[in-house]
Specification:
By secondary structure, the protein is of the alpha+beta class. The protein has helices at about 1-10, 60-70, 105-110, and strands at about 10-20, 20-25, 35, 55, 75-80, 85-90, 95-100.
Length: about 110
């Protein structure tokens, strides 16, 4: 994290720092613009560190259908997660990206607290 903080002047927020889930965001809460997760505990050693792109959409299922109609392929999901409705796709050239839609999960979590 220190690398990104110093090179880019990022203000980061630790969301979780347990052996099972280490996750830090650039910014906090709704202002977060990026996240960094330590995936070393579940990815094979030969998988290098990498960035993944998430596109926020209003309706995940409609966006997935539109993307598929234009040649995208679903790799994983869609699934309802604590972060919203999430799916992993590839574009027609094979470039991978993720789609995430806010499903009100934060409001429900706050109401349950």
């Amino acid at each position: 994290m220190k690398f990104y903080q110093e090179v880019f002047g990022w203000d980061t927020d630790v969301m979780s720092d347990t052996p099972e889930f280490r996750y830090t965001t650039l910014g906090a809460g709704d202002a977060a613009k990026a996240g960094i997760m330590d995936a070393s505990g579940y990815l094979p050693a030969e998988v290098p560190s990498n960035w993944q792109v998430y596109f926020a959409v209003e309706d995940a299922d409609a966006s997935i259908a539109k993307a598929q109609s234009m040649g995208a392929r679903i790799i994983d999901g869609p699934d309802d997660t604590p972060f919203g409705r999430l799916a992993t796709l590839t574009d027609p050239t094979g470039a991978m990206f993720k789609i995430v839609a806010d499903t009100g999960q934060e409001a429900r979590a706050a109401a349950d607290a």
